[in-house]
Amino acid sequence: MLLYIIKRVLYAIPILIGVNLITFILFFMVNSPDDMARSQLGAKQVTPQMIEAWKEKKGYNKPLFLNDKAKGISKITDTLFVKESLKLFSFDFGYSDNNRDIKEDIKDRMYPSLAIALPTFIIGLVTNISLALLIILFRGTILDTTMMIIAVIIMSISGLFYIIAGQVLFSKMWHLVPISGYENGFGAIKFVILPIIIGVFSGIGSSVRWYRSIFLEEINKDYIRTARAKGLSEISILFKHLLPNGMLPILTGVVVIIPTLFMGSLIMESFFGIPGLGSYTIDAIKAQDFAIVKAMVFLGSFLYIIGLILTDISYTIFDPRVKLG
Amino acid sequence: MINITLLWTDIMVWLLLFAIILWGYIVSRSSRAKEQWRAIFKSPIALTSAIILLFYFSFALIDSIHFRVKNQHRVVSLLDMAFEHRIKNRERTYSAPFALKEYSKDIAVINGETKQIYRDLKYVHSGNMVIDSIKAISIGLIVSLFLIYIHIRYRKRRGRESEIPWITGYITLTILIVLFSWLYIMSFSYHVLGTDKVGGDVLYETLKSIRTGVLIGVLTTLVMLPISIALGVSAGFFRGWIDDIIQYIYTTLNSIPSVLLISATVLIVQVILDNHPDWFQSTLERSDLRLLFLVVILGVTSWTGLCRLLRAETLKISQIDFVKASKAFGVSNFNIIRKHIIPNLMHIILISVVLDFSGLVLAEAVLSYVGVGVDPTMYSWGNMINQARLEMAREPMVWWSLFSAFIFMSVLVLSANLFSDRIQLVLDPRNKI
Asked: Is the overall model pTM greater than 0.90, yes or no?
């Protein structure tokens, strides 16, 4: 088991280097530092001296992969790729355009993101599984059909509508919660409750359909028939036999999401003015702050890879048949 | 004087249409495929959604024939020409659907007195709404009855009983045509769906947005398919180090959060476009180029899912005896892939194309909100929703832009979802119906 995890972690390294290479190609080759300087400086008459000065200040005045002027090992290390891209591995994200330490910013903004993402995830999971079980209990009836139609409709409406409609109804017309904002501590509840409700609701459509199909596959299997033949009630079959077996694909499917919860929801946070990582990223995209976008890309893929490893581990925990080697 | 101009995305749309017609021709020669399609349309819901999708696509096509107006730096489409009366006659600001006056009060001087009044709209004619409606509906009925008559004649001549629920189809078609002709004829005397902040007609904006949404949905697939088919099939077929490399590439791409990858790429394209103003002549061509880039970016970043499915299926198929036999007979790899592998992958490809379509239409709205979607000057549902966010905060609320975008977008996505459900049910061999 331990050996397997070590192997997976080692396999993650070339992938992260690949991610770095992609972001590097995007940020420094397709879009050369000269172009960046020109669009950052903004002015129509940009002199070559101004561009050089800007690159000097940012440390972008090095060659891309190979430094001919340097000697020995620094031929490779004194380049943009190593200095700007590989240093992300040490979680050194550098400074944003307005000279703030990105690492500190990320640390500060992590908690508001989690305050929304974690409850949304847990409440959503419980709601969706209960709804799916309810539909399974009434499978083949009119309730099943109606619920499935509602699920398709919920799925077909853009999440942006739910957010806008929720804000208009709950905040503007009924004055139940503030429209947007955030405060630390328990005061946060009134700010996060609406995003959580909307997040759970907009996820119902696709998840319930997915869980229902998983449960439907299980319910036709022999062990369920045996349980029924034993004379168990439908309810106890659902909870004692179907649920544990159906949970396996569901849990392993959602484990990969758990680490990325840190990243927050881009849209939700930006609409509700929550100072989390999602709105951080959006603001960076809108302000074209490449340093932050680069850091978030790295962080996102790092967390995703952790999620993949956790998924594999969760297989062995939940399903004793799976042996990892 | 006007002459036809082809924008980049126009070329792609018509190429795609050509490809679909070609594919339809191939399908019509295979009796098994024909049988499958008949099974798909046996469901009234599938037929209804297909007709709605077709209606949307025809709008996108009409909007994809562009003309350059001589002596003016302007490129207009066929749809623009049909709505000329609503493009030229802009109001000053917001007005509600069917309103005769502006939505908010304005200061005006009447007889030397300064008053707050609702100004009259400039380009509405308060005719008799009932008579206009009856006229519009009867025109719609005539057109749709004519189409239905032609189709019934055609079916009679074929002389075969079909299991397809045509009645439902006819009803859907009639409703759509009557609804549209009513909207269109009313648009001559009213702003049917109101006007936006700068007085533009919302109905026209929504109809223009159809092209953007549909194009992002279908053209992305056009970019994505060759990549995922080529890589997925070769990974599954050749295995070994080719498989390793391809798997590495898609795990790496997959591990970057897609919104971030897309936004990073779009940001960079934006910088490139800013630095090359000589690539386009008008704002329309600029936004078109940006749409093209967006489609390419979405395609290049979203091929991984389908690629993984195709790889797994190819692995499975190439273990089956008929492929092994062909290999033993010395059939070239290319021919095995062409004759044995690809035809057996068609159902996966088709299912994922239809499934992806609705996701892409929804993604456009989100990306436009983040600011990395289509050009802000381009009409799109994403841009409309983005604006609506501020409009909803006004007092009194300006709801009609959001409402129109919501209705038009949800109907498209809903019918795409229902259609893809049916396709999945029929084509997926795991489902026995």
From this structure: no
